[in-house]
Specification:
This protein has 78 residues and is an alpha+beta fold. The protein is built from 3 helices and 3 strands. The longest helix is centred in the middle third of the chain and has 11 residues.
């Protein structure tokens, strides 16, 4: 079974009503959404881009991206 799609926007107040937030951890203090429609609405409200991460449990390239792209300061600024 594939994990849910993760959509992240820059840090902000976390919303306890976000779907599935109690099931997954947010790396690097990112404000993650596990529901696409909620994430898109939040990003549009904030005027910020969305980052959609599709991943697989055994995906080596996914782990490499998580270690090298997500923590990049230029990525986190957006």
């Amino acid at each position: 079974m594939m994990p849910p799609t993760i959509v992240a926007t820059q840090k902000d107040e976390t919303d306890p009503s976000k779907k599935y937030a109690n099931l997954f951890e947010a790396p690097l203090g990112l404000n993650l959404y596990f529901d696409y429609d909620a994430a898109l609405a939040h990003a549009q409200k904030e005027g910020k881009p969305s980052f959609v991460d599709f991943t697989g449990w055994g995906c080596v390239n996914c782990r490499k991206m998580e270690k090298s792209v997500w923590p990049d300061p230029q990525v986190l600024l957006r």
